[in-house]
């Protein structure tokens, strides 16, 4: 576990649970997009591990693009005002776009992103998120594919960070309170 063991409070989702869920999501997406080519849009940096495992589990051809976004000015994304740090490299007009996110927390990042991408005339635009927190239901974000609904606690691992650490953990867990102090 990369030496992170002493920082971990408990494991919320094991490697095996994540792998099984990705296989399930990938089977659904493979069926829904049969005969089409899909453009996966990963939201940096959290979605990187999910995207690489998900793309390998799909049985249809996909292409990959990435976007990096940041909330404007403040430390949290709760303002809902988002700034593009890295845009897509290509035009998505006429493409079947599937946005991949690691987690939907308030939903504000994704709701902004969907408006932005929706304005670029894709043939279709859907979201696949590995995790969703209860607060996300307060913001209207249409999400077609969801891995797990999780409790409202701070989670790290499998792409999710605390101060840029723990993204490389193969499972999803919580941190001991003293790690935040
Ligand atoms: C996290 C997470 C989602 C977003 C969810 O990203 O990866 O992208 O926050 O929050 P929201 O639903 O409240 O908007 P973060 O901004 O921490 O960047 P990162 O992916 O680089 O860690
Ligand atoms: Mn993110
Ligand atoms: Mg983060």
Automatic annotation (TrEMBL):
User: Enzyme group, top EC level?
Assistant: transferase
* EC number(s) per entry: 2.4.2.8
Gene Ontology biological-process annotations: GMP salvage; guanine salvage; hypoxanthine metabolic process; IMP salvage; purine ribonucleoside salvage
Q: Its GO CC terms?
A: cytosol
Q: Name one GO molecular function term.
A: guanine phosphoribosyltransferase activity
Source domain of life is Bacteria
> Which cofactors are reported in the record for this sequence?
Mg(2+)
Keywords for this protein: Cytoplasm, Glycosyltransferase, Magnesium, Metal-binding, Nucleotide-binding, Purine salvage, Transferase
- Which Pfam families does this chain map to? Pribosyltran
The residue ranges of the Phosphoribosyltransferase domain are: 16-162
Pathway of this protein? Purine metabolism; IMP biosynthesis via salvage pathway; IMP from hypoxanthine: step 1/1; Purine metabolism; GMP biosynthesis via salvage pathway; GMP from guanine: step 1/1
Identify its protein family: Belongs to the purine/pyrimidine phosphoribosyltransferase family.
Its name, as the record gives it, is: Hypoxanthine phosphoribosyltransferase
